[in-house]
Structure formats: structure tokens, C-alpha cells
Design brief:
This protein has 362 residues and is α/β, with parallel strands linked by helices. It is built from nine helices and 19 strands.
Length: 362
């Protein structure tokens, strides 16, 4: 029986892109050296969970991942979408959160699961976390209750727009920022939050539909696909003494900037209000700016302190609320890739996608 209780195993496509999970010792250090097929062969137990195929559009260190590569991964999934029940993207950890967010915007509302995973140690290492991460990712991708884009790593399932790499070496590398985990995975058991029940490999899933039947992915609404991004989006982090003139220096190379403010939304005032002038000049010059906080948890609220209130009501100064910086980068690249109309950019930016924001006014 399949993980969702059916007689036929789900058909899962592994999209291999490289990363530590595929790395081997090279002359200059670890670098991707295994193919996706070789990585998959390390986990023969996956054949008990799903029928697995492998495709390899990339084989790179994720430090080298670019928005063009996000589009390639998305198009690979889109091209195979009708032929598979779910997808597992093998990816390096360093930029995995960015790619998960980008796929959330490029393939919106997917009824089929798109799972990203990788490892902190190479698949061939005797102390690797790669085998369990890959197995659990296939398990999750083959489950009837799974959908949309997520990261499965270290026994946690993290919504694709809410992940942040918090640790460089530990196996629990990622945190879910400002949003609960939809599930955890204990060995071969998926334990879901929010009263959704527990999905267990080889046992029918309860509460999938009102009559107890598992939903058929083919009967659900297909995802909305996008194939354009604007790469001219940058991130600027406030530090004490930073000259606001830096914004004017960015004008020729960036269409949008994400400004990481202090605390809940503090921006230096100074005696000459130079930051306020610089931000307003940036917006009035036709550029886009989104304000967020450099603090990891709990988000932005510009209305609390005097040092943020000047920006709270300006319609063209976008507020990141509780979004991650990774999601803000990907969302602005997506939004500006679709339109340059300011009102339309605002509409796209504030539209929730894959749980990427919980506005404070809600």
C-alpha cells in the first residue's frame, strides 16, 4: 500500500541541483560530485514509499544559485507537473530558504507537494544527515495531506516562505520564522499540527476529506505558474553611522531595496532627518522600498516608536510585517517581474502567498 492508503505508490520526481548532499572531496574542498541518481541510490528504503525518478538541471554549490536558476528549477517542475504526484528538490542549505521562497511565488497554490531538502554533511560521510532528510522528504512528498512548497530538514517541515538558516553545522539547520511548523517527522511518521491528524506510512490518512477519503491531486485546481523575475532587488542592513547617501549610490543598479531596520521598525532620525529624506527621495524617484526588521522574530510595526512613524502611512513604502528577508527578496523579484505599476506592485506584495505574511491589522 502507498503512504496515503492506496494500492499504488505515489510517483515522485527528484530534481537534483547539487549542494552538500551531493558533494565529495575535491582539490579545493567539498564540491558537488555525485549525480542526483547516485544520491538517491544511497536511500533504497525510498522505494517502499514511492516510485522515484530523477532529473538533474543543475549540479552546483547553492552559494552559486541565482534567480535564473530558480526559474530553471520552476520550469523543470512545471514541465513535469502532470506526470508526478510530488517533487523533491535536492539543494544546498546556504540559499535553500531563498529558493523555497522563490518557488512559492513561481508555482503558487500547488496542490502537489514541492519539497526542498539537503544536508549538513555529504551523503557519503559516515556521520551524514543526508539519508534521513532525503527519505523523510520523499515520505512527505508522497503523503496525501502534503501540498505547496516546503522544506523538510532535521525532522521538521517548514513552510517554504518561512525558513531561515540559523545554524552552519548542526543538523537542525533551519528555523521557521513567525509561523508554526505544519508537521514534524519522527522516523517514518508524519505528525501534523492543528488537529489535522497523523499520517503514517502504510496506513490510511484520517481527516483528508469530510468522508475520510484521501484527496486526488489530479482533481484539484492546478497551480498558477510564473516565469519572470526582476533581479534588481537588494538588501540594505542599518548599522550605526551608516550614511543614508548609500541609497543614492544604489539607484543605477537596483529597482528595489529591502531596508532592515532596527527593532520593531526604528530608523535613525538625526538632527537633519537625512534618512527620512533619502528614503522619500528613493520612492519619489520611482524606486521600490520595503521595510523590515533585522530582528529574526515577531516582525515589524512602524507605528510603535517615533523613529518609525514617519514611514507608517506612506503608501509606496512597503511594510514587511512578519515576513522573512528571504521571502521579501523573492517576492519583490516576483512582483517587479510582473509589473512596474506601483499600485499593482503593492497589490502583489500585500497578497499572502503560501503563508508568507500575517498582517498586523489582521
Amino acid at each position: 500500500m502507498g503512504p496515503g492508503g492506496g494500492d499504488v505508490l505515489k510517483h515522485i520526481l527528484i530534481v537534483a541541483t547539487g549542494g552538500t548532499i551531493a558533494s565529495t572531496p575535491q582539490g579545493g574542498g567539498l564540491a558537488p560530485g555525485l549525480s542526483g541518481r547516485q544520491v538517491a541510490d544511497y536511500v533504497p528504503q525510498a522505494s517502499e514509499v514511492a516510485r522515484v525518478d530523477v532529473v538533474q538541471p543543475l549540479n552546483i554549490d547553492s552559494t552559486n544559485m541565482s534567480p535564473a536558476d530558480w526559474l530553471l528549477i520552476a520550469s523543470t517542475i512545471a514541465g513535469a507537473y502532470e506526470d508526478y504526484d510530488g517533487f523533491v528538490v535536492l539543494h544546498g542549505t546556504d540559499t535553500m530558504a531563498y529558493t523555497a521562497a522563490a518557488l512559492s511565488y513561481l508555482i503558487q497554490g500547488s496542490p502537489k507537494p514541492i519539497v526542498l531538502t539537503g544536508s549538513q554533511q555529504p551523503m557519503g560521510s559516515p556521520f551524514t544527515d543526508a539519508r534521513l532528510n532525503l527519505y523523510q522528504s520523499i515520505l512527505y512528498a508522497a503523503d496525501d495531506l502534503s501540498s505547496d512548497v516546503s522544506i523538510v530538514f532535521g525532522g521538521q517541515v517548514i513552510v517554504g516562505t518561512r525558513a531561515h538558516k540559523q545554524r552552519t553545522m548542526s543538523f537542525n539547520a533551519f528555523n521557521s520564522v513567525n509561523f508554526p511548523l505544519p508537521a514534524i517527522i519522527r522516523a517514518d511518521r508524519i505528525v501534523r499540527d492543528g488537529g489535522m491528524g497523523m499520517s503514517i506510512t502504510g496506513v490510511p490518512t484520517a481527516q483528508a476529506t469530510p468522508d475520510g477519503a484521501a484527496p486526488a491531486h489530479g482533481s484539484l485546481k492546478p497551480p498558477t505558474l510564473y516565469d519572470r523575475l526582476c533581479e534588481r532587488v537588494g538588501v540594505l542592513r542599518l548599522t550605526p553611522g551608516l550614511d543614508p547617501a548609500i541609497l543614492s549610490l544604489l539607484e543605477g543598479n537596483f529597482d528595489a531595496v529591502i531596508l532592515e531596520t532596527y527593532g520593531i521598525g526604528g530608523i535613525p532620525q538625526g538632527t537633519d532627518a537625512s534618512w527620512e529624506r533619502a528614503i522619500f527621495d528613493w520612492v519619489e524617484g520611482g524606486h521600490t522600498i520595503a521595510l523590515t526588521t533585522q530582528v529574526s522574530e515577531e516582525g515589524l510595526d512602524l507605528g510603535v516608536y517615533e523613529v518609525g512613524r514617519a514611514y507608517a502611512e506612506h503608501p509606496d513604502i512597503l511594510k514587511g510585517d512578519d515576513m522573512t528577508t528571504e521571502a521579501l527578496v523573492a517576492k519583490l523579484m516576483w512582483a517587479l517581474g510582473q509589473t512596474r505599476d506601483r499600485q499593482r506592485i503593492r497589490e502583489l506584495f500585500y497578497r499572502p502567498v503560501n503563508h508568507d505574511r500575517v498582517p498586523r491589522q489582521a
